């Protein structure tokens, strides 16, 4: 999943190969178009919609519980434009990491084509998961989620988000949306596209769900847990690609994986099933944040349980398939070794360890000459 090396021959402009080779430069030009729009009065208002967070409301000091007024945000249609712009930024960052970091390491390690694709994928995801885990943990600490766990099921005043919370979710949506054009840019095989689409779609569904239902802190905590487990997975993969003696690390990750799924389910059930039950309302206006009804709770719990079961089942089937393949390889190796041993023993004139009559133990005796 890396950048395609530019060949000595320049392909025709706007051809398929030209776009694949220069997609990062093309996307950079599109992004600069929005940035340059800030320089002109007629286009500045349109460009701001793409570059900055929208739907902000200045909350007075008394309502924001601070000494000064504070700007909080809710979501709206204009967020789609912001997500689109930062999707372009993500594509550029993806290409930069690929060209200046992962490609150089791949050339030095001399990976095979299959290993190189896996290495590039794990490398890209590892960078994203590291940044997301650190960023998410910083938001949880700065917004006192650890000291006040009730924030997991309570929204801010007027059911709004802080700047850093909204920007985090916008960035997350932009990253997973950028996965769709990357399927084309990286020439993903047709048989791999359905699994990639499911993987991207599941992340988008749950991130957007937490964003639209104002379950921002709960969604953030679950994302950090999920990304941490996925980070360990890809880090084990990177170590395994560099040296196959780290196979035990992959097995150790399976234990961490199951533990992460259990913790995610526990947090979801406790938060949604218990603490949201005390304040049900009949008003289901999502824009006002009043989604604390039985249908919404069932939907959230069902979605969380379904995705955890799906991910766990995928891991189990993968491990079983790998175990069956390894067993078949070992069995074929034993059979091949036995057949080789039998062929060698037959050439030596033995059968089942018993000497045959054709075997010659010593050279024939010379006839004595009598004078």
From TrEMBL:
Residues 332-371 are annotated as: Disordered. Residues 362-371 have a biased composition (Basic and acidic residues). It is found in: Membrane. The chain crosses the membrane at residues 83-102, 123-141, 167-185, 197-214, 220-241, 253-274, 294-316. Keywords: Membrane, Protein transport, Translocation, Transmembrane, Transmembrane helix, Transport. It comes from the Eukaryota. Residues 334-347 have a biased composition (Basic residues). This is Translocating chain-associated membrane protein. The gene is Tram1l1.
